[in-house]
Amino acid sequence: MRRLQSTEAVIAVVLILAMVLIGLVNPAFWGVGNLFSLAKSNVIIGIMALGVLLVMISGGIDVSFPAIAAAALYITVRTMVTLDYDGVLLPFMAACVIGVGLGAFNAFIIDRFKMIPLIVTLGTASIVRGLVLGLLGTSIVNINKMPHGLIAFGSQDIAAATASNGANVGLTAMVLVYGAIALVIHFVLRHTMTGRSVYAYGGDPEAARRAGVNTRRTIYFVYCTAGLLAGFAGLLHSSMIWQANPRDFVGLELDVIAAVVLGGASIFGGRGSVLGTMIGVFTLVMVKNSLILMKVDTTWQRVVVGAIIILATAITAWRDRKKLA
Amino acid sequence: MSENLIELKNISKRFGGVRALDSVSMNIRPGEIHCLAGENGSGKSTIIKVMSGVYTPEEGQILISGEPVSKLDPIKAVQNGIQVIWQDFSLFGNLTVAENLALNTYILEGRGRMDWARARKMAREVLARLDVELDIDADVETLPTSGKQIVAIARAILAEARLIIMDEPTTALTRHEVDALFAIVRDLQAQGIAVLFVSHKMREMLEISDRLTVFRNGKKVAEGQMSEFDEPAITRAMTGLELEEQPYVANISADTAPVLEVKNLCVPGIVEGVDLELRPGEIVGISGLIGSGRTELARALFGMENARADTFRIGGRDIFPRSVQEAIGLGIAYVPEDRLSEGLFLTQSIERNMVVSIMDRLRKGLFLDRKAMRSKTEDMFATMQIAAPSADTAVGNLSGGNAQRVMLGRWLLTGAKILILNGPTVGVDVGSKAKIHKIIRDLAHKEGLAVVMISDDVPELTGNCNRIHVMHGGRFVAHFEGQAMSEDQINDSLKALK
């Protein structure tokens, strides 16, 4: 555990150095408006990353969560529009249920047929995306049709300030939602046997079985929770951008996985923490945000994300090798 | 109350057509240190799995504390205090010592909360009970093998073990660590916990065990107080063979011409002038400490070192092999120390491994002559007495002794006249070792092969060689032959070098 914390310390130092550097290159970085928008950008990726963190600690990987998120938000919003329903709680519950269901499908295939999670979730992603577009259509639900309740929910701020250019900027209340979810996941991982079983399973599945861990339950827990968080994050995203796009989140899996790996989780399972993941997410979002501030073309951002994944994984692998030597 | 902690009566277990256990009975008493000995495939792993409830026997009865237990399963076994420490320990390298120790208990108690404070307290207490110091907050993967073993033992104690079964516990330990382990085991015994060692390291077992049970081919062949046994008696029971004690007498007449004559062989900085003469039918031993130059000498004979010599005569011809290919062509074969990494293709069949050195002799036009390949392999398979279903078995599935025999077979197929063996039975169990020795002696005696045997195992040399050289600092410093060639003599000579 101490080593994990030291891993987190390393990432935190890297993050702070990067912030100082970016601030020197571009003082606008430290503007209140930018910081608020940075915090906002953390929410959705962060919630999804917490799901991916669980999966990665268990030694698996999930690339289906963007598809699950898009399906959950689009099915929910389209249903709301059709029924002319304007609540908040019920739709979020529905999105979570959809997420859990699709996560359970992943878990079922992985557990029942002992298949590699990467292949299973790739397949699930394709199936889900195809079904949503095929059965529900491809039209985007725009602000004029979006349920007002959702928009109102997603637009709440907890703090307001005046930016240097005189504009009023707010800090979205959704960071509280993100924080609360992070606390819950942290508690589960660190202080419940369910959470420790995920680490045990990720460390050595066979030893976990011998120790009496219900490995099937662990697999279902991990993929269902990842699905749940994806579904929830999907609808939250929709209510924050006032739009429901069935093609949303394409290519996001790489960003999220990069953030989780950057946060110190091991690709091979058994290692990772909520705090590390949150720092990883913040770092990744900040780097992408700064590239925008520095007016770097979005296509080049893909290059940076890819490089971060490889670099972060290489550093983890190097760390593990050194430990063995 | 019975005096037996666990009693097995007439246990039989089959796998397909193989009888892994044939009406075996054995018992373990509370607080005793019991040793279960047997070669690979003797059924000792099967009986551990029966005791721990992994396998259900077809016939027989299991009694725990005198009570018959029907359908012993792993959970029942644990509830009855039977704990197995497998060779891989089944620990979680990514978790701390404390968590590894607490995890099983918490799961067994059906807890929902992970109570860290209690876990650390439990860990401290159990390690104090074992009288060992270990950082309970360290990740287990950072510990050495001996540390992991201690964690595994501590975990078994926390599960309220009354019997701890250890599968080959001393394999990866240094002598010092073995002593520490034995101290812990004696402590356990003092606390009334029985320990069953499954091992084929006889010397260590004689040191620690109270009682012994020996298995061979799925049957119990001996049991009793350890004091009733000595090493040869156990070996005899394990192998069923009366292992030959007489030194090897080479079948050579005085006028036989040497097959190899070497004078003043030097490998710069390592081998400082060695004279060696080898006649057909001789087995010449070379003993020496690590760094004495014995391996380099062997490699030099096989054309693998940048060596020079005043005389290098093979079969009367003056010729010095400058490469491995040349050496093979001259009829020299070398079986290296680390046969698995240096010699064998583990995923390939026995047949392919055997013929790989004579591929070009088996060519028929563009293709391989499969018939010749098969017949050559089958012959060698029989000569070497390899225990495998067929020559198509992958070498990776064979035991150390059988793998070593495949390697020997490969070299004999090349038609070698001179065989250089470096540590021929390292990591091979007793019976297999005896078989390899017999094969080598037969080859020398009947076929007139000349053998150089390099070994750390002094009894192996005195038992098989007709002459022995002791090497030190790149030179032969002592020579033993006939009556003078006793184990003690050579050990004394080696000790004097240190």
CATH architecture of chain A: Orthogonal Bundle
As for the number of domains of chain B, it is 2
Distance between the termini of chain B: 56 Å
Q: Count structural domains of chain A.
A: 1
Strand content of chain B: 15-25%
Molecular shape of chain B: elongated
Please state the second-level CATH architecture of the largest domain in chain B: 3-Layer(aba) Sandwich
Residue share in helices of chain B? Answer: 25-40%
Strand content range of chain A: under 5%
Chain-averaged pLDDT of chain A: 91
> What's the total count of β strands of chain B?
22
InterPro entries (chain B): AAA+_ATPase, ABC_carbohydrate_import_ATPase, ABC_transporter-like_ATP-bd, ABC_transporter-like_CS, P-loop_NTPase
Protein name (chain B): Sugar ABC transporter ATP-binding protein
GO cellular component, one term (chain B): plasma membrane
Subcellular location (chain B): Cell membrane
Commentary on this structure:
The complex is a heterodimer of chains A (325) and B (498). Chain A is mostly helical and 325 residues long. Chain A has one domain (7-324): Orthogonal Bundle (ABC transporter involved in vitamin B12 uptake, BtuC). Chain A is built from 13 helices and two strands. A two-stranded antiparallel sheet of chain A has the order 1-2. In chain A, β1 (157-162) and β2 form a beta hairpin. In chain A, α2 runs antiparallel to α10 (215-241) and α6 (148-154) packs across α10 (215-241). The two termini of chain A are 19 Å apart. The mean pLDDT of chain A is 91. With 498 residues, chain B is an alpha/beta fold. The mean pLDDT of chain B is 86. Chain B is built from 17 helices and 22 strands. Chain B has a six-stranded mixed β-sheet with strand order 6-7-8-3-9-10, sandwiched between helices. Chain B has a six-stranded mixed β-sheet with strand order 16-19-20-13-21-22, sandwiched between helices. A four-stranded antiparallel β-sheet of chain B has the order 2-1-4-5, covered by helices on one side. The longest helix of chain B has 18 residues, at 430-447. The N and C termini of chain B lie far apart (56 Å). Chain B is elongated. The interface between A and B is medium-sized, with 29 and 22 residues.
